[in-house]
Batch of 2 targets.
Target 1
Amino acid sequence: MNPTQAAIERAVSLPPEKIHRLKGYGLRTSADGYLFRPTSVDEIRKVLEIARKSGRQVVLRGAGRSYGDANVGSECVIVDINRMNRVLSWDPQTGLIDCEAGVTIEGLWRTGLEDGYWPPVVSGTMYPTLGGALGMNIHGKNSFKVGTIGDQVVELEVLFPTGELKVLAKDDPLFYEVISSAGLLGIITRAKIQMKRIHSGNLKVLAVSCANWDEQIEIFNQYEHNSDYMVSWIDCFGKGKQNGRGQIHVGWYLDESAKYPPSLLAYNQDLPDSIMGVFPKSSVWMILKKFNNRPGMHFINYAKHQAGKMLGNGKEIEQSLVAFSFLLDYVPNWRNAYLPGGFIQYQSFVPREHAKDVFTQEIAMQQEAKLESFLGVFKLHKPDNFLFSHAVNGYSFALDFKVTDKNWPRIEKLCHRMNDVVLQAGGRFYFAKDSTLRPSDVRAYLGADTLERYRKLKAQYDPDGILTTDLARRLELV
Ligand SMILES: Cc1cc2nc3c(=O)[nH]c(=O)nc-3n(C[C@H](O)[C@H](O)[C@H](O)COP(=O)(O)OP(=O)(O)OC[C@H]3O[C@@H](n4cnc5c(N)ncnc54)[C@H](O)[C@@H]3O)c2cc1C
């Protein structure tokens, strides 16, 4: 094609009205790209062809729930798979569900619940697509027990940029390489998943208040082999002996198989429109915004810890699976409370033996920099065999940092200092939550062998380097 023909081709297939500004979930990162929303594998092929002819790279995007720059790409063609959202088959006898990659976690639970099935792994929000969830290989509050979502997949269909459409099962090494590869090796178009049998739409949930990391870890140890879910909230303002204070929630499936419990009906799970029947949820983020500063969050974390210690400690309640699993979905648009600068999430994964020491240091470093995370979340994991695995036999600690133009250089510096401590302890990171890793950090935790394996796969399945993201560019993965 001569240059004039190429220019005409580009103007026809990439008209300006296709240009959209897309953001990472934390609202800090954005990029302009040409947005396409295909409805079938054939349409994805056509979009890849358009990208090729116009000399553009391609970014895969699900529901845009990754916090940083993993789902955006400047000047790229964006393949948004949300419209490929059909459940292709559902078997209530076996709990096997076969879905297009745009089906969301919400779509999974709404399909299975009535027949007594729940998605085996869910994130803290129900909106991610299966494509995005498998691209990152998400974990849930049961990570210590069942591992990541990739472990629950029975079959995967992937379209590679070479045009090859492959169906992968667990006996194929490529299965473990495409899942977790952050949209850089192939386009997941369909997945078959084994859902989890349940006999109630409610959980029994126990709240335990902890004064520090020692108590946190003791409770996790106590319930590790005797619970279905565990997650802990950490107050990052707790100092000295109170470093690591917070509240753990331990959850168990209920067995109400003697009757058909109403909690298995989806509309009994739906989250309420208002909080305490008074505040419309749609306006809650505006109230939150008023407190979304260091003194406000210091106070809220302190009050939450005290309330947990005095009122909630040792209490058991019944809670719906939706309310327990998707707490953050209670407040629509809560991220707007972080505007105008947005926020980043920083999540590190540290082997058991070093977790207390590393996370104590992370909190002390935040306090020293006067940049305490407004929310800290602590979970237990088990390792897996996926290519860009974030999992460890140990714990993760997720932190939300409010970003402003002024504090950004200090936040970056803080995260880099924390990275060094995590790496020294043999820890890992998670691309879905990243905004501050450096290429050298990635080389250190993934290791030369994994990166070499990735580069060979990239050369074989995406030889022209079509698939990219701003995260991949930043971390020198493309
Ligand atoms: C409130 C909240 C709570 C969260 N809680 C958790 C949690 O508990 N555990 C956890 O693990 N994560 C959690 N996350 C992160 C989230 O689950 C992941 O970022 C997930 O990948 C988002 O899916 P998505 O559909 O939005 O994908 P996107 O963010 O749009 O994309 C994710 C990645 O997958 C790639 N991709 C997208 N579609 C495809 C495809 N079809 N084929 C191949 N690659 C593709 C993209 O290029 C990108 O690299 C949370 C996020 C939020 C906002």
Target 2
Amino acid sequence: MDEIEKRKKAREFAKQSLSKNKPLDWFEKLYTQAKEGMAIIPWADFEPNPNLVDWFEKNNFESRNKTALKIGCGLGDDAEFLSQKGFSVTAFDISQSAIEWAKERFENTKVNYIVADLFKIEESLKDRRFDFVVESYTLQVLPKKLRKEAVPIIANLVKKDGILLLITRARNENDDEGQMPWPLLKKEILEFEKHQLKIVSFEDYFDNEEPKVRRFRVVFRKI
Ligand SMILES: C[S@@+](CC[C@H](N)C(=O)[O-])C[C@H]1O[C@@H](n2cnc3c(N)ncnc32)[C@H](O)[C@@H]1O
């Protein structure tokens, strides 16, 4: 199987899961097959997200003695980046294989990696709230209905006065939604404001990927 075929698998798996009305089933399947060399995880660059790194370069954010949560942490690069910044980090993913892989990659990690589903997160984190929550690229792989359901859940994970940093693909109302990963609309981002999150900054820009991708990078503060 060539590289192109391996790459196609993510979309095929997503499509199959959606057609069975089980939109969260394909992540584990993809990570398992990728570990066996039978698929490629399109988002795994084995380095922290450049849009996250760039945000920290531009913002003098004090991270010592603060807790951070990485949602949908995949193979752990963003979580490790946050840990290096000085946060005490918890990171979760629905895929057990992703979490095992992240722990293998970062043997001496300080990050608390857990297998958990965002939609059942209270079972895993009880009432824990975090100073800094990062959601990058998970919402965009969820269908619209689940994206909407995710908003209050994510908002609830942020402590009072804490920050939510959200990074996602972006589109306008009249743009075609295209294929997964689905770019989000501004109005979907504004939904967070209904849950005690106040927008501190809203960036709408094209990143440095080739070809360039339009992104929203939004900072909210919990009031
Ligand atoms: C597009 S990937 C992004 C991963 C990572 N943030 C990155 O940029 O490399 C989305 C991740 O979210 C995870 N995920 C999807 N739905 C989830 C859910 N309901 N709860 C927890 N993790 C989920 C997937 O397994 C996957 O690792």
